[in-house]
Amino acid sequence: MRKFLLQVDPFSEKPNSNWFRTITLCVSLCLTGCAMGPDYLRPQIDTAERFRISPAEGQSIANLSWWELLRDEELQRLINRALHDNKDLQRAMASVEEFQARSRIAFMDFVPNMDIDANAPVFGKLSGFGIPGFPTPFSYFGRTTLNWEIDIWGRIRRSNQAARADLMAREENRRAIILALISAVAQSYFDLLQFDVQRDIAYRALASWEESVAISRAQLQGGVISRLDLDQFESERANAAARVAELERQVVQKENELSILLGSNPVSIARGRSLTEQVVPPEVPAGLPSELLQRRPDILQAEQNLAAATARIGVAKAARFPKFSITGILGVASPALSNLLLSGSEFGVGGLGLAGPLLNAQSLGFEQRAAEAQARQALAQYEQTILVAFKEVEDALVAIRTVDDQLQAQRQQVEALHSALRVADLRYQGGITSYVDVLLAKRNLFDAEFALSATQRFRLVSVVQLYKALGGGWIP
Question: Which helix (H) or strand (E) holds 260?
Fold first, then answer.
């Protein structure tokens, strides 16, 4: 191809030295010219030396693989299935493939564009005058045309920078979806385990209240209690039955939600370890705040979007200047097919092309201003993403820091209420007090057990949320 460029005159016996010098100069300008527009530099972001609330020092738990953090074998199986079949992740992977192709398309602008065409007036000629050695609609010809833009102003280079940044942004988006998917599956699984525990509590409460109603009816017939007492016990039994129905509905709906994450139609979800048997790290160090900027995928995605927007400023600015290109045509043409390949039927021409804006120059200026505004938007989005990231980390850290104290207090409350129920039952059997004390003790115990199971689930979810907030799965 380059040999053709040096022999643009097919009738000469040696390359034209003027053409050689011109092409060499153009290529040198293309390779050494400065690209227009600003070069991307990562914005300076001030970060604290440590997080505001950090329960432990050491390497961040985000350095762990997700299967090292989540030890439940059934949960691991569900996550693996989601990573294989989830539709959102498949769409993100296809998006990465799309922008890989777009990046290669942008790179091909560096390569000369060559087309080939031919003409054969096989259906006859009504009129026309054909010049030997020059293609017309009335002659047979085959020709190759070449156009190679010389990237003096860096338009193609900036375009390639933008395409690569777009590709990297889609790759980070894929990582963000993977992390969000792992987090969503784990949280939905822990929700199911919580509903299982609460459903068992509700069934026990229902059985207990049914027993109390039966006792109260016998006491009412014996004149020991009033109708008001029986109505209270029946009210508690109905409340427990309503809770059972509500939890049955929540279990099925959560299984349906988890099935969608797994990329399947709604199915029953198998369980592994119970809620209280789940293993989490005893300490959850968060690492350094500066690591967050290099680890978290949504921050990296926002940064790549900023880099792409910065490069497009150069594209818009270079579009306001003339485009230089090397053009050429080489082929054969003849009014008669029999003479197409004979000497004298060949033709060729080569030259430098120049194209520049004229009446649309002002419009291109506005295009540059629009590109600069888009870069400022991307910068604001990048900075906002960082602020949200630090907020999510701090929220997860304070949740983990306080939830252990909350769990300890609620366990003590449940133990005290168990003891209170036993004492109330003994006092009732001894005739010291009425059954109302037993009713209150039961109600308080069941409510406390419900709250304890919710806090146990919250402890597990807080660790998962911290892992997600730190950009978990990142390997140094």
Answer: helix 227-261
Assess contact for 28 and 306: CB atoms under 8 A.
no
Let me know the angle formed at the C-alpha of 313 by 308 and 315, rounded to the nearest 5 degrees: 90
**DSSP line for 320-336:** TSPEEEEEEEEEEEESS
CA distances from 442 to 208, 412, 430 (A): 9, 16, 18
Residues 6+ apart with CB under 8 A from 400: 55, 284, 459, 462, 463, 466
CA–CA gap between residue 241 and residue 250 (Å, rounded): 14
Sign of CA dihedral 264, 266, 272, 273: positive
Distance, in Å, from the CA atom of 97 to the CA atom of 58, rounded to the nearest integer, reads: 38
Own/partner long-range contacts of 86-93 (Cβ < 8 Å, ≥24 apart): 86/181, 86/261, 86/262, 86/263, 87/263, 88/177, 88/181, 89/174, 89/177, 89/178, 89/181, 90/263, 92/170, 92/173, 92/174, 92/177, 93/174
Per-residue tokens: 207: 């059985």
Secondary structure of 209-253 in HEC code, one letter for each residue: HHHHHHHHHHHHHCCCCCHHHHHHHHHHHHHHHHHHHHHHHHHHH
Angle among Cα 81, 294, 300 to the nearest 5 degrees reads 70
Q: Tell me the pLDDT tens digit for each residue of 365-421.
A: 889 999 999 999 999 999 999 999 999 999 999 998 899 899 999 999 999 999 998
**In angstroms, what CA-CA distances link 117 with 114, 120, 141?**
10, 11, 8
pTM of the model: 0.81
Residues above pLDDT 90, as percent of the chain: 45
DSSP 10: T
List pLDDT tens digits, range 83-126: 999 999 999 999 999 999 999 999 888 888 889 988 888 776 65
According to DSSP, the residues that pair with 349 across neighbouring strands are 329
**For residue 222, is pLDDT > 90?**
no
Contacts of 76 (CB under 8 A, 6+ apart): 67, 70
Domains along the chain with CATH numbers: 35-114+154-321+372-469 (1.20.1600.10)
To 5 degrees, how large is the angle CA 53–CA 59–CA 60? 55
Q: Using the 8-state DSSP alphabet, how is residue 108 labeled?
A: G
Q: What are the start-end ranges of the H helices in 57-143?
A: 66-69, 73-85, 87-107
